[in-house]
Amino acid sequence: MFRKLFGKSEEKTQDEVRLEESLQKTRNTFFGRVSTIFQANEITEELWDELEEALVMADVGMGASEELVTATRTRVRDDGIKATRDAYTILKQEMVRLLRSEEPLHIDEPRLLTVVLLVGVNGSGKTTSIGKMAYWYKQRGRRVLLGAADTFRAAAIDQLKVWGERAGVEVIAHEPGADPGAVIFDAIRASQESRKSDLLLVDTAGRLQTKFNLMRELEKVKRVAGKQVHRAPHEVLLVLDASTGQNAIAQAKAFQESAGVTGIVLTKLDGTSKGGAVLNIKKELGVPVRFVGTGEKIGDFAIFDPVSFVEGILGNGQ
Q: What is the tens place of the pLDDT at every residue in 189-206?
């Protein structure tokens, strides 16, 4: 019934199942308490207080927690709802509303070449996510090429090449220390000419401690892309480690200023008990989560779906 409220089929896609399964740890810990709260016999003031506390403890954040509780409480009051199970359904609906985005994912729009920049701090799982994303799109018929524009770390170039081999996707790379703008220039030319690719995923440097240089570097990469391909980059995806909780928000704000982030790739979602950070990120940044890493294997990657996420953290029933 919950899925039908959002026009979702009861028959779940592979991505939806993978996302829900990755949230088991979150569901069994902090969000298990939310489910318990709604097993009370009646709706009381204490229920709302306990709900807000439980959401904050699950890394939903104070602002998002207050918004969810206020919206749920208002609808319960205005609709004259008395049963806690119905109030629980409304909470789920409000979570989906918060997570949903009207902005389409521009990767899927028809064009000769789509250019996507991936940004994020070192250690967030950025390079791994690029490899998984390349594999995900290749499995769906896209002709993918990778660009190694994180030229400041030789290890980043080598790691991307390893993931490229795993995904069966070629990597365009220069020597360590090379100009990142030159890398993306060559990667775009290769995509358009010899490789005939329709999707270019570009790894970029993630050195927040030198924010000014990082900003200039990202601006240059974006400028080079825009000169070679109309309206490129078409997406700038920020890779965030879900297990870092509130620290992920600070990282996201810094990259949003530097790179003009259009979406989030959330990694290590299966390894954290505080999956509520997803709601906090959307509330604080207004940027949608687009993809999630659901495990360690190359196929453990999925499109983010708000309905499946809410089902994953709260369960299908009460």
A: 999 998 899 999 999 987
